[in-house]
């Protein structure tokens, strides 16, 4: 999802964009983020991140 190294503005924009995209796709942002946070530790390569996009 990115390496922000303390850049809170970029991190905030990333999460805001993710939440708004989730809403536009008719998903519950809270449930979607909970799912992402559960799945993130299981990701073994960059390609698998695509499967988690809303």
Summarize the structure.
By secondary structure, this protein is mainly alpha-helical.
Number of strands: 0
List segments where confidence is low: pLDDT < 50 over at least 5 consecutive residues. none
Mean pLDDT reading? 86
Number of domains: 1
The termini sit apart by 14 Å
**Largest beta-sheet details:** none
How would you describe the overall organization of this protein?
With about 55 residues, the chain is an all-alpha fold. It has one domain (about 10-50). It is built from 3 helices and no strands. It is globular. The relative contact order is 0.14.
List the helices and strands and how they pair.
Elements: H1 8-24, H2 29-39, H3 47-50
Question: Notable features of this structure?
Answer:
single chain; 54 residues; mainly alpha
